[in-house]
Amino acid sequence: MRFLKKCAPVFALACAFALVGCGEDPTFEQSLGFSDGTVAQEDAPLLGREYDTSLFYRNDLTLREVADPGVIYVSEGEEAGKLFLYGTSNSLSVRGIGVWQSSDLVHWDRCSVAFDPSPQSWSYSNIWAPEVVYDAPSQTYYMTYSARNSNTIANGGKYYANTYIGLATASSPLGPFRQYTGTNANGDEIGLGDPVFDPAKITAVNGEPCEEGTYARYRFLDSSYFVDEDGQIYLYLSRGQDRYHILQDTDIDYEAINGTSELWVVKMKDFASPDYASCKQITKAGYNTVEGETENDIEAERAATERINEAPQMTRRGSSYYLTYSVGGTSSNLYSVAQAVGESPTGPFRKLSKEEGGLVLGTEMNWIQTAGTGHHCVTKIGNELFLFHHEGADRYTIDTNNRAIGYDRAGFLKNAAGQEVMVANGPTSYSLQALPQAFSGYRNIAPEAEVSASGLKEGSDKAHLTDGFFASHAYGAIGETEFNAGETATVTLTFEDYRKIRAIMLYNSIDYNKIFYQIARITLRVRTEGGAYGTVTVNNVTFPLDERTSYSSQELMFAGSNLVLDFNEIAVKSIEITFRAPRSEGVVAIGDIWVLGK
Predict the structure, then answer these.
(1) How far is residue 217 from each of residues 33, 156, 243, 252, measured CA to CA in Å?
(2) So what's the pLDDT on residue 305?
(3) How far apart are CA 513 and CA 423, in angstroms?
(4) Residue 8: its pLDDT value, please?
(5) Is 299 helix (H, G, I), strand (E, B) or coil?
(6) Which of 224, 228, 338, 411 is buried most, with the most CB atoms less than 10 Å from its CB?
(7) 282-339 pLDDT, tens digit each
(8) What DSSP line would sit under 340-368, residue for residue?
């Protein structure tokens, strides 16, 4: 349904102000007509209101019975401008991979079964965790996935009844994907009965040669490709726990292997050909580095009963490589996305602490709005990064039959030590968030403004007001700007020239004891199409402290809670925000200010 603003026109100037040539001195003052981005509906709950889908999205968790998302944004060809999401599909009884598409990040259509393996395939059942990359030179989409082998040695098959990594290809993001077969660059004949990564063929680990077959019974899963700027392809995967007890009768340290899951990487000669001599372990569960010298402090890997590092993703920024991955049990509310940083795609990597920003995306035990935000993918939509993940569909708990897809914006920010780290605006739940510019045509231009602020608490940094990120936890790399309670504070954003804007979003503090309740006045210095200059204002706008933003009885703020002013497009030179905290002591904080403009 198309969103219609239920508000007065922004300002009626078509005939009232024809004065031109008077410089930029204001010649009028008008009230600003706006909405909160939603449409009030009789007998409809706040959480279910329709909203302005031309500017915003909301994590309504409409994609259910799907998990482990792999998402690509297509920028060229017939499907340009669309998102394609692949995932572990409960509705397909995990015997195939489904695909959903979206042209706006709001509405998702189930298209087809993207990958339906042959009954003769080793991966005929228990298929999950697809990741898809597009290779422009070959105009081919490559899907890597995990599956449990359906052919056992006892039945004459070549492999154990274990988990392996498969590969399927297609010429369209919609598929159909077909399992890769043929002779790869290693000279190996890959048939329907063969995975693309066979641990029995590993000839060295961490540079130490080994006999082929040494790692034959190891379980590998959750794979993803990364193509570096020099064209080198890497396959990241998780060496999983021995859930099927395949290693129990071997000389391997069974207790260590059975109870842990760690990340590995292998160089690829091409998408179908692992360089088995390059296999390398890049994380050790529970420790900051693979050497295991210092224990990791992210709440003992998010309070997991099992020691798990899984679902790796690689992102490069400048000369740094960001390894993001999931920690905690898949059925735990604390299932989360963490990060480690290195200077090479193969490491060494060091996991970051909570204070450094090591937790990229995760919940807290007392949250009632989001649970178990893990197994993510990093997707570039235009020039913006988004994290897609699964979480509990009922927002309270998570299990394998109760998962849905959520997504939030990500980027990079310097932490207190000056190190650039990946951060995420989320996980969000009931609040409106800005669509990618690729879909709305608008972006957050607040970071481009000159900012002045009065009433700042001593030592607080005004830079947090427009850095593009709001805190979701009381720790981490994202900061808030604090103001003295009991004083009138003013924040002014001034642009070099007039900018066309459509909305203002004021993010509240994640700390319930520091929230603002009301903004006394917002004044916009504007220019009309006819060349008249003036101001438009909003007075006494109240923050929506309701079930969309908080749980008042527990003094809990939801991540991403904001005050939205959605209006018709205006040419704006400056924005002045004035507020006064009702308390006589303490501080009030603003998480971030967003201005959606051009």
Answers:
(1) 66, 16, 12, 10
(2) 66
(3) 24
(4) 40
(5) helix
(6) 338
(7) 999 989 999 987 788 788 778 766 789 999 999 999 999 999 999 988 888 999 999 9
(8) EEESSTT--EEEPPTTTT-EEE---TT-S
Angle at CA of residue 125, ends 171 and 255, nearest 5°:
115
CA dihedral angle for residue 237, residue 238, residue 243, residue 245, rounded to 10 degrees: 80
How many whole angstroms separate alpha carbon 20 and alpha carbon 2? 37
Two tokens, residue 33: 């007509």
Q: What is the pLDDT of residue 196?
A: 98
Report the candidate in 558, 397, 406, 431 with the shortest Cα–Cα distance to residue 47. 431
Q: Does residue 12 sit in helix, strand or coil?
A: coil
Pairing of strands 307-317, 273-274: unpaired
CA distance linking residue 195 with residue 283, whole number of Å: 24
Which residues, other chains included, contact 557 with Cβ-Cβ below 8 Å and sequence gap of 6+? 508, 509, 510, 511, 512, 515, 549, 550
Largest CA distance in the chain: 90
Other beta carbons less than 10 A from residue 44's beta carbon? 12
Q: What pLDDT does residue 20 have?
A: 41
Prior bond of 348 cis (ω within 30°): yes
The three-class DSSP label of residue 533 is strand
8 A C-beta contact, residue 281 and residue 262: yes
Which is nearest to 563 in space by CA: 539, 545, 588, 589?
Answer: 545
| Displacement of CA 424 from its chain's centroid (Å) | 6
